[in-house]
Amino acid sequence: MTILITAGPTREAIDPVRFISNKSSGKMGYAIAQSAAEQGHRVILVSGPTDLDVPDRVDFIPVESSVEMFAAVEHQIAKVDIAIFTAAVADYRPASVPDQKIKKSGETMTLELVRNPDILGSARNQFSYQGVLVGFAAETENLEKNAREKLERKGCDLIVANDVSRKDIGFDANDNEVLLVFPDHTDHPHKDSKQHLAHLILEEAITLTSVSNPN
Ligand code: CTP
Fold first, then answer.
1. 120: closest CA among 94, 98, 142, 150?
2. Which atom in ligand 1 lies closest to the alpha carbon of residue 6?
3. Atom 4 of ligand 1 has which residue's CA nearest to it?
4. Could you point out which of 67, 140, 199, 204 has its C-alpha 20 to 30 Å from the C-alpha of 94?
């Protein structure tokens, strides 16, 4: 099978030397990519900047901004069976980016931001993608309810939901505890290493390919 994975943070330029980003380490997405490659699947990893080594036998497409990630996914998604969106994509970017470094002037500074494209949310309609679609949801409250709402809104087959208010799991941690929110039920696997959860998420996605395409 061919599996597309987005991972890591995006960087939204403010000027040539500054950017807006977030604390995503990329660990979850890279662990899924590694697990899939070890099983012999073709893996396309579209990733924002991380400190991680690219797993062996993975087609790696490095990107910086959400607009670049959107373009890379749009270009690749038609040929994949499973798409797993783990990236922590910035929701907004600076409205304009000057060619030169911004010099300090007044006591306050206002940065105007504009909405970024929703890459996962574009898969079904804009990209006409019909394969298995897995999204992630980082929430600080009402985990299952918010994740289920995201599942429906973005046309996903599975949302992996993280409680990012907990210090022991999520973003930079090595362990994670997630809810697996499907259209008709929710699973709650126990807390585990990101490697083990990566393997589990991949298995769930592979099972979904036979449900959505029984022949
Ligand atoms: N995502 C994406 N493109 C974006 C924003 C998010 O592809 N511009 C994907 C993420 O990779 C993740 C899922 O959408 O798989 C959920 O992202 P999240 O930021 O939690 O959800 P939002 O829909 O942005 O909702 P909110 O900010 O209201 O929580």
1. 150
2. 11
3. 118
4. 140
Minimum-distance ligand 1 atom for the alpha carbon of 150: 23
For residue 182, what is the domain's CATH number?
3.40.50.10300
pLDDT confidence of residue 169: 74
How far from chain centre, in Å, is Cα 35?
Answer: 16
3-state secondary structure of 160: strand
Tens-place pLDDT, residues 20-59: 999 889 999 999 999 999 999 999 999 999 999 999 999 9
Atom of ligand 1 nearest to the CA of 122: 7
Range of the domain at 156: 2-92+112-212
In a domain, 106, yes or no: no
Residue nearest to atom 14 of ligand 1 (CA): 120
Domain count, the chain: 1
Render pLDDT for 139-194 as a digit per residue (tens, 0 to 9).
Answer: 999 999 999 999 999 999 999 998 888 877 766 677 888 999 999 999 999 999 98
48 lines ligand 1 (CB under 6 A): no
Cβ neighbors of 120 (< 8 A, separation 6 or more) are 85, 133, 135, 154, 156
Residue 62 falls inside a structural domain? yes
Q: Note whether residue 140 is domain-resident.
A: yes
pLDDT tens sequence across 72-96 = 999 999 999 999 999 999 999 999 9
* pTM, full prediction: 0.95
Evaluate whether residue 98 is within a structural domain.
no
Hey, which residues does 154 pair with through a beta bridge?
Answer: none
pLDDT at residue 213 is higher than 80: no
Ligand 1 pocket check for 4: Cβ under 6 Å: no
